[in-house]
Every structure is written in C-alpha cells, then in structure tokens.
Amino acid sequence: MNFIPISMAILLLMVSPAFAQGPQTPSCGNFDIPRDTKIAGQLFTRGTYKINTIGISCEKVMGKYGLIDQFLAQDEQTPLPKPWKYLSEAVGAPKFAADVGVGFRMEKNSDSSGSSRTNG
Prior knowledge:
The protein has helices at 6-15, 58-62, 67-73, and strands at 29-33, 37-39, 42-44, 47-54, 85-86, 95-99, 102-110. With 120 residues, it is α+β, with helices and mostly antiparallel strands.
C-alpha cells in the first residue's frame, strides 16, 4: 500500500513554494514616499519602497491614481476604501489586501537619501 505519513505530508506543504512566505512574483518596482506619513494608522517613513502584488496589476497599485496614491491622499485616520484592509498581523513588510489572494506589500529598501537598507 502506497501512502505518505501525515507528518511527511505536512512537511511537504510547509516547504512548498506555493506556501512560502513573501512575494511569489517579481517586484512591480519602487515607489517613493517623500515624507513620513500614515496609511490606515501605520507609519511609513519617507524613502523608497519595493512593491509586490498578488492578484492585482502593478498599474492598479502604483500607476497614476493607483491605490498607493489614493491611500497617501487620505487623512491618516481615514479608513482605507472598501474592500481594502491593512493586515496588521502579517509578518514582514506591511501588507494590504482586498480579498483572499488580492493585495500588495510595501517593503522599505532605502531612506530618502538614497542609501541602501539591508533587508533580511
């Protein structure tokens, strides 16, 4: 009888790339935040952020009038437009989601002076 013990199946799921933490697609590029600001109560210090998306185009997130611009234009205490949420319990770079499998993350990679920040 061919079967995989449950402990082996769990291990395979844990190391599967589909379940790996972090972005699964290439970065959309960088987005500059010119001054310290808050989005949904979360502080984003001025600098350059690498943007990764899942289930949504880079253009919708970073383009002219994209989600990041919309979020930055809001008062810092204004809730995000529905259905968007800031994922406060997410591990790693700040993440925003509209639904399961639809969202983006903003990982700071340098300060405003252009010096590199070591990540990981």
